[in-house]
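Hi everyone,

Forwarding the result from last night's run.
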Amino acid sequence: MRELKFKVWDKVKEKMLIPQAISFDTQSSVPFAVSVPGRSWEPIGKFQLLQWTGFSDENGIDVYEGDLVKTSSVIYKVIWNARLATFELIEHGSSGKRELSAVECGGVIGNDFQKSRI
């Protein structure tokens, strides 16, 4: 079985957090509540749920949906393609694509939510 990991962007406090638990609806498998350190269960609408891609960058940093990855001189954003049911790298500011496996020869430089190191 493949490992699933998540992090959440707190939309209200504008802070990235590692959830302690995520509650999913048993019939639809849609998340509806999140528990983060120091707080009780809160509605999923307060958070942006970000899934681990299964890849790490060249420095061993886990790559999540919404991360910005730099390979060579090009910056890509990690997105989920629901139609193809896969993660993709989309060139930042363009529509160019690259295989997700390219993160192994690049590095995470930030994400869509926090100030990045661009």
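The mean pLDDT is 90.

Cheers,
N.
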